[in-house]
C-alpha cells in the first residue's frame, strides 16, 4: 500500500464517504471531535478536522470519566436527532450546520484532495437538527454556478454544465 492509498483510506474512514475513482471526499457527520491526519511522512503536512459542538455522553451514564472517543458505528435516530454507536455513546449534535476550510466559509458538501494536500484545517459546526442552509440545493442558483462551485459534487450533480 502506498502512502497515498493509506491517506485516501484514512480520510474516507474519518469523513465516511470517498467517491471511488475520483479525488472527491463528501463531508458528513464526523466521528471524532478533533483529529489531525498527517498527509506527509517526510514533511509536517497535516489535515486537521475540528467538530465544534459535537457533544456526546455515554448512554445512561452521567459520569464524565467514562467518555470515550472510540466509535464503531453511528446511527441516526430521525425522531430525536440523536445518534448512537456500538460503544453506547449518544450524540446530541450529529448534524453539520456549517463548514469552514482554512478559515473560509465552505458551502459545498464535498472537497477535492487538492483542497487539503498542502495542509488544511476543516471546522465543522454541529447541531441537533439538519441544517436548513448548509448543504441545501437551490436548483436555480446551482444552474448558474460552474460545476466546481456546486453544492453537490460534479459526479452527483443533476444539473449538467454546458
TrEMBL record:
InterPro entries documented for this protein: Glyco_hydro_92 (IPR012939), PNGase (IPR050883)
GO molecular function: peptide-N4-(N-acetyl-beta-glucosaminyl)asparagine amidase activity
Domain Glycosyl hydrolase family, residue spans: 19-128
GO process annotations (BP): glycoprotein catabolic process
GO cellular component annotations of the record: cytosol
Name the record gives this protein: 12428_t:CDS:1
Source organism: Dentiscutata erythropus
